[in-house]
Each structure stands twice: as C-alpha cells, then as structure tokens.
Write a structure and sequence with these properties.
The protein is an all-alpha fold and about 160 residues long. The protein is built from 3 helices and no strands. Helix content is about 90%, strand content about 0%. Keywords: Membrane, Transmembrane, Transmembrane helix.
Length: about 160
C-alpha cells in the first residue's frame, strides 16, 4: 500500500511540476516580450514622433492592401456564385426537358400499344420493352454527356 501511495504522490508531483514549468515559461515569455519592446523603443534611432508616424503609415498601407484583397475576393466570389447558378440552372433545365421527353415517349408507346391490334401479346410486350429500354438508355447517355460537358466547362474555368 505504501508503494502505491508513493507512486501516486510522485505522479501528482510530476504533473504539478510540468504545469509549473509551462506556467513559468509563459510568464517568462510575456516579461521578455515586454522588456524587449521597451528596450527597442528606447534604443530606436528615430524619435517617438517619427516612429509613431512610420507605424501609422505602415498600418495605413496594410489596411489598404487588406481592403484591396477583400474587394478582389468578393468580386471573384460573386463571379463564381453566378457561374455556379447558371450552370445549375442549365443542368436542371436540360434534365427536366429530357425527363419530359422520356415521359412523353413512354406515354406514346403505351398509347400506340393500346391502339394497335395485338397478334401475340408476348412478342408485342417484348418489342415495347426493348424499344423503351433502348430509348431510356439513349436518354440517360445524353443526360450523362450533358452533365460531363457542363462539368468539364466548369472545371476548365
């Protein structure tokens, strides 16, 4: 039991020591930064007014550059947004048109089947299914090509 208590005590002591060393390091860093800044200001070759003027000029230039970058990013973002909206609209319109065409063809096939006299129902059903599947496959391929073309145009920009 005494061995376990001693190990727990040493573990707690190690944790406390590591916390103290981290805390001491941070305090030392802050004090060092303050002393370094004060020393730099006192030993600077320029007067206080000149130094403040230089700092203000640099801050103004930095603000101008930041504003320019912000405007550029905003313009590019708006362009990208409008491009994405246009592409999305074009794709959805194309898909909608092809869906309507496909539905109309399927409806046309069913109305044709209803008006034709059926000699052999099994053969007629097989012919309609084959015809419908090939039309559906063609429409799906057209849709895939349209998506691929739009995607390649979008990726090339």
């Amino acid at each position: 039991m005494a061995g376990n208590e001693r190990m727990n005590y040493e573990l707690k002591k190690d944790k406390t020591d590591s916390r103290m060393s981290t805390k001491d390091f941070l305090i030392g860093t802050l004090i060092g930064a303050a002393v370094g800044s004060l020393t730099a200001l006192l030993l600077a070759p320029k007067s206080g007014k000149e130094l403040r003027g230089d700092l203000n000029n640099q801050a103004y230039l930095l603000r101008e550059k930041t504003d320019h970058i912000r405007e550029s990013v905003s313009i590019k973002g708006n362009e990208l947004t409008s491009t994405v909206k246009d592409k999305t609209t074009a794709i959805s319109k194309k898909v909608s048109e092809q869906s309507v065409d496909l539905v109309n063809k399927v409806k046309g096939l069913t109305t044709d089947a209803e008006t034709k006299p059926v000699t052999n129902p099994v053969d007629e059903l097989f012919e309609q299914t084959t015809h419908s599947e090939s039309d559906i496959q063609k429409k799906l391929e057209e849709t895939k090509r349209a998506f691929d073309e739009t995607e390649s145009k979008f990726n090339s920009k």
